[in-house]
TrEMBL record:
Residues 278-391 form the CdaR GGDEF-like domain. The lineage of its organism: Bacteria, Bacillati, Bacillota, Clostridia, Eubacteriales. Belongs to the CdaR family. Residues 446-502 form the PucR C-terminal helix-turn-helix domain. InterPro entries: CdaR-like_regulators, CdaR_GGDEF, Homeodomain-like_sf, PucR_C-HTH_dom, PucR_C-HTH_sf. It comes from Lactonifactor longoviformis DSM 17459. SUPFAM superfamilies: Homeodomain-like. This is PucR C-terminal helix-turn-helix domain-containing protein. It holds the Pfam family HTH_30.
Amino acid sequence: MELNLQIIASDMKDICLKSHFLTSYDIRNLRYPCFYQEGRPLDPTVLYLVTQKQNMKKPPETGILSFLFLQQPPDIVCSSCNCLIIHPNVPPEELLVRLQELFAYYQQWENQLYLASMKQCSLSEFGKLSLKIFDNPIQFYNQKTLNCVFAVADSSRYNLPDSFPSVDENGYMSMDHLLNLKLENVLDTLAVRPMYIKRDTLTLPAIMQDIIIQHSHIGRIIVLEVHKPLDERDMALVMVLTEHIRQFLLHNPALYGAHSRYIDRTLSRLICGEHVKDATIVSALQFLEWEPQHEYFCLTAKLPEYDHSRNSLHMLAVTISSITKSNCFLIHEDSLIFLFNLTVSGLTRDEHLKTLLPVLRDNLLKAGISTPFNDFKQLYNYYKQASIALQTGVQSDPSFWYFRFENYALKYMAAKIYQDMEPTVLCPEGLVQLIKYDRKKDNHYVHILKTYLECNMNISETAKRLYMHRNTLLYKLERIKEILGVTLEKHETRLLLMLALYILENPA
């Protein structure tokens, strides 16, 4: 791990008399220490120890270099480089060993962070591994929902303040603690680089830095000044921790999103048909600033048969979430479930689908779409709508990318009605006779009847669609009515015939 003189100066306060920095704390380029040897080429990535026996009278001409002097150098030298002036009583060999141990100490920390990432450890593990580095409590918040992902501290070394969050077994902080932290004072502050926050802004002084992935604010690292005073060393090291967590999240998109795990649990219970109290639903939606009576629609999607990777679903979820407005998602079994808030987004369902179509097409993803609804408690029913639309649509129209429930509701209802019986068993007797008559005489009376009913018994429209003379049509209709043995004037009769004809043409 590369260091800088700000880190080294802070860790060597006991022997450091004076410091001078030309480069900022966010630049770390020192790879190892060694003794300075006059006449040798100098490397900006090496920290040079200049002993009392060596007399550097003029500044080096090779870029910005870093030195540790065991005696006061000329001002012209000191002002032209990054340097620390060390107490002259420190033996040079002892100083070199201490520096080597310091470099090894931070390298070990970075190796542990790498290992935690490779082992797919929890996010809190990154915080625990860093406690010895900062010697202060560390917290990580979901930027949008104020969900405390982790809060770790070494209570054996210092007393925790009353404002430090108590975290339950699921890693969540109570709303009281969140409010006590006064996070609303800094939520709108962008901290692309580490930012020191004074006591009058937060409950405690702290360093914070945002984690940003693909231009989205994912979370915020906060190191509280409880035990050890924070300085530029800590700001440089917060950058290291933040980057490791950012890389970890970049390769594990399941661990972040636009909503907290509290919302996930609530959605999962609703999707499974469990009874969820109104207060629980309201609390969950508050994280997204949604309300139960807003207008929503549900989308459910599945990957192609050859790809059931959960990671693929997570990556698609993040992609869809980033290009659409006002949504939250859940991975349930092997399906991706999205909820879109039409009220908050100000868009129609069709406008959302227009945005989604390229993503669905490019990823060979099929999706079922529910009708809009205004009662979040009914999510289960509209999730079922979307699932039915997907299942039925893939079978009926495999070339489509998404399927609206209203286009497949009749197919579904018909299939449910006749799922335990042969379709002809529930057909009116007259229709069965008409089918037999068609097979015997090849008169296509069933087709004529269906067209006539579809045209709302309009003779002119029916004749036009069948390319048939009006008088011929009237004659055939009279014959059809005779065979049916029923009058078509009753609405119930027409509905039963239409449903029966639909089932015969679209067997489940």
